[in-house]
Each structure stands twice: as C-alpha cells, then as structure tokens.
Amino acid sequence: MAYVTTSDSVEIFYKDWGPRDAQPIMFHHGWPLSSDDWDTQMLFFVQRGYRVVAHDRRGHGRSAQVSEGHDMDHYAADAFAVVEHLGLKDAVHVGHSTGGGEVARYVAKHGQPARRVVKAVLVSAVPPLMLKTESNPEGLPVEVFDGFRKGVADNRAQLFLDVASGPFYGFNRPGAEVYPGVIQNWWRQGMMGSAKAHYDGIKAFSETDQSEDLKAITVPTLVLHGDDDQIVPIADAALKSVKLLKNGTLKVYEGYPHGMLSTHAERINADLLAFVQS
Length: 278
Hints:
- There is one protein chain.
- By secondary structure, this protein is of the alpha/beta class.
- Helices cover 42% and strands 17% of the residues.
- The protein is built from ten helices and eight strands.
- The protein has an eight-stranded mixed sheet with strand order 1-2-4-3-5-6-7-8, sandwiched between helices.
- β7, α8 and β8 (248-253) form a beta-alpha-beta unit.
- α4 (142-165) crosses α6.
- The longest helix has 24 residues, at 142-165.
- It is globular.
C-alpha cells in the first residue's frame, strides 16, 4: 500500500494507476468516504491511457486517523503532498462534494502557484459556502449541520446507512431504482474512517467560505451539478460558483442526485472525458 507522509507527520494513503508519463488526473473524494468512491472513474480513465491518482483524506479510509487538521487548509496541503511526492504536472483535478472544496483550495493555494494544474472539475461541490449567514441568506441553516454532528456522535453507523439509502443517491425519490451494493459500499467507506475526522469535517464542508478561492482560480474549470441534489442544493453551490470563477463552465443535469457519479456514471464519465480532452 502506498503512503506519503505530510509535513505534520500524517500518513496519507493514495492510489496511482496507469503510465507514469501520461497526463495525470487526480480525484478528490467527498465526506465521509475514501478514494474508493472514484473507482468507476479511475478505471474509465486508466483504460483510456491516463494516469489516475486518488488519495484518502486524513482521517478517512486508510489514511492516518489523526486528531487534528480536519479543515480545508490541511486537506489541500495533504493533496499537494501527494502531488509533489508523485511529481504530477499538467494535472486535471476533479473533486466531488467536500472534495470539490478541497480542489478549490488546492488549485488556488498550491496547484496554480506551483504550476502543476491545468484544469479543474467541481462535481456536486460545496463551494462557495453551504451555511446560511447574513451575507449568504440562501444557505442551509446551522441546524441541518448540527443534525449531522449529532448523528455522527450518537450513531454514526445508522446515520451513514440512512444518508446512503436516501438523499445522497436520490433513492428516496418515488420510482427511483435502488442499488443495494452502492448503499453498502458508501457505508463501508464511511465506517473505515475516523469518527473524529467525520465530526470535525462537517464544520469544514459547511462553514468554509471559499469565494476567494474560486475568484483566484484561472484555469478552465467545469462545474457539474444535478438539479435534484438533496445534499448540496444547486442554488447554494454551482449556480454561485460559476459566477465567481474567471474561466468556469456550468453543466446542469436534470433530476440527477448528489451521488450522480455512481448512479449516472456513464454520462458523467463521458462529459469528464470531453472536458479533459478539450
């Protein structure tokens, strides 16, 4: 198993598949999952000649279950540690949900200054800000996130089962086709990680205002979002993000859920490939 040790001595697990001289695509997973959530996309791109990389965020998956550092600054710095360790250049960075926030912070603070990133993709991503505030009245009330914190603290296993069985993939919608294996895989990934990291990570993905990150990004950025996203409502995220990006393109999927990378992988993969090749 491959690991890199960060500057604050945290072991970060990563996958690195494909030719070492091929263009790299690096994938950043959502809360509370792991790099395994990208397996479908990684197989799709490695079969087309790309080098694909994905890591487990600190406290998630197979990375070290440390107590501290569960915030966007550390998430982005950890990703940069993987990039530097592998010598990735001209990379495309793709982030889902919380991973989209990680990508935005990474590109703005590390990838562009180091000239290691050429494009970015934000999929069902949390930026610019999920929490309702005076300056962000369209956001979600703090009680929503307090409910997630209570669920993690009281019965994390049941919370994860409920989220995966319901709103994450839209399986709670009338007539939805339900995939039990997808639910079980989401639960498996979540339970591999640290309850402390998951608890602290709720603040990171809900309260981090990334407006300045988005404004700083100059590389071409594709924003993908389903208009039936029950986890990160499109009005709070993608519709605002694309207005802040200097070189952003928005693609909206009618009726698609937050977890559309799994439920509609064929369509999303094709659109990702078209963007990478453009």
